[in-house]
Write a structure and sequence with these properties.
This protein has three helices and three strands, in the order E-H-E-H-E-H. It has about 70 residues and is α/β, with parallel strands linked by helices.
Length: about 70
């Protein structure tokens, strides 16, 4: 199941981040959110030393890069 999984949600839209956070928390996930690609990348790099994220959900059109670009980095 999803309980205890650590998920990063990257989206510029506060409403989307908020809704995703609420939904995933209902399933027992630990959710962190980022506003753009640079912030998400920073968060990913800073969590690698203690396991990283189990999944990343990113908007395809982030303000500073595409979701595809984020995944390639």
């Amino acid at each position: 199941g999803l309980r205890g999984k650590v998920i990063l949600v990257a989206d510029a839209d506060e409403a989307v981040r908020s809704a995703a956070h609420a939904l995933l928390e209902r399933y027992g996930c630990i959710v962190e959110t980022g506003h753009n690609g640079a912030e998400a990348l920073f968060m990913v790099r800073n969590t690698l030393s203690h396991g990283g994220y189990d999944a990343i959900i990113a908007d395809i059109r982030l303000p500073d890069m595409s979701g595809y670009d984020l995944m390639l980095k």
